[in-house]
Amino acid sequence: MKEALEVLDNVRLNFSPTGLVALNITIAFIMFGVALDIKIEHFKQLIMRPKSVIVGVISQFVLLPAVTFLFVILLNPTPTVALGMLLIASCPGGNISNFMSALAKGNLALSVSLTAIATLSATFMTPINFALWGDLFINIYNNQGAGDYLVPIKIDFFQMVQTVVILLGIPVIAGLLIAQYFPVLTHRIKKPIRKISIVIFIGFVIALLSANFEHFMKFIHLVFLIVLIHNGLALLAGFSISSIFRLPRIDKRTITIETGIQNSGLALVLMFNPKIFPPELELGGMTIIAAWWGVWHILSGFAVSSFMARFKLTR
């Protein structure tokens, strides 16, 4: 396995910052549609009963990195693949998790709150988790050569604030206000916006695949099973911890999705930042893992959300 994965280190993906901007604009539009189903009272309930929020944060930043570390130890892949998995697990939940929670008929206010908290917390939790678990991996396997890849991660706090405001704050507030003061208009536009959102997401999946289609076709057999199991463990971790703490089923759905949908876009931005990872480092294993995760968690998110939505909420 390790010898086969070594070929990934020389892979160079086509990464487009312009495409990331377009994706962010799309996410803002989707968040507006999601917010049409949220009421201000939902956020008040979370403040009064914060248990689900606390469990969600623990699941995201404590349980998932720990579970990923155990999987990495069992798998013992190449350093770049291992550290790529750990970096993915150290990132906050992806913004599309809110859309997936809406499809799953989960707690949308909880989903939005967890995304906002996780995104801001990532400025210090992502570097801490990547350094902690990455260092443990290197020490256990005595693979000092991997130390070159365990670089200090720096995330601009104000940039993350800007991201939360643009992708979450403005669209959610706009959606809340329109739903509050224009209920007839809201009823008319909710379904069309949801359908358009699904079409847009499918388009982005196709675009991401086509941009690196040759690489995916050539190397997908090496990472497909790894990402599938990793993502499955993430979903299972979110469901398990919310079940242990006996959260309402609607909150279980949200925390499951929030833990299983990771911000692989942030991971790729960090990997392609020459101030963090020097250009001379061969990061093919890390980038392939993050890029395929970005595709796969959309597919698995749709599947899991659709499955959840088939069952009625009893509690």
From TrEMBL:
<feature type="transmembrane region" description="Helical">
    <location>
        <begin position="289"/>
        <end position="309"/>
    </location>
</feature>
<keyword id="KW-0472">Membrane</keyword>
<feature type="transmembrane region" description="Helical">
    <location>
        <begin position="260"/>
        <end position="277"/>
    </location>
</feature>
<dbReference type="GO" id="GO:0016020">
    <property type="term" value="C:membrane"/>
</dbReference>
<dbReference type="InterPro" id="IPR038770">
    <property type="entry name" value="Na+/solute_symporter_sf"/>
</dbReference>
<keyword id="KW-1133">Transmembrane helix</keyword>
<feature type="transmembrane region" description="Helical">
    <location>
        <begin position="219"/>
        <end position="239"/>
    </location>
</feature>
<dbReference type="InterPro" id="IPR004710">
    <property type="entry name" value="Bilac:Na_transpt"/>
</dbReference>
<feature type="transmembrane region" description="Helical">
    <location>
        <begin position="81"/>
        <end position="101"/>
    </location>
</feature>
<feature type="transmembrane region" description="Helical">
    <location>
        <begin position="20"/>
        <end position="40"/>
    </location>
</feature>
<keyword id="KW-0812">Transmembrane</keyword>
<dbReference type="InterPro" id="IPR002657">
    <property type="entry name" value="BilAc:Na_symport/Acr3"/>
</dbReference>
<dbReference type="Pfam" id="PF01758">
    <property type="entry name" value="SBF"/>
</dbReference>
<feature type="transmembrane region" description="Helical">
    <location>
        <begin position="108"/>
        <end position="133"/>
    </location>
</feature>
<protein>
    <submittedName>
        <fullName>Symporter</fullName>
    </submittedName>
</protein>
<feature type="transmembrane region" description="Helical">
    <location>
        <begin position="160"/>
        <end position="184"/>
    </location>
</feature>
<feature type="transmembrane region" description="Helical">
    <location>
        <begin position="52"/>
        <end position="75"/>
    </location>
</feature>
<feature type="transmembrane region" description="Helical">
    <location>
        <begin position="196"/>
        <end position="213"/>
    </location>
</feature>
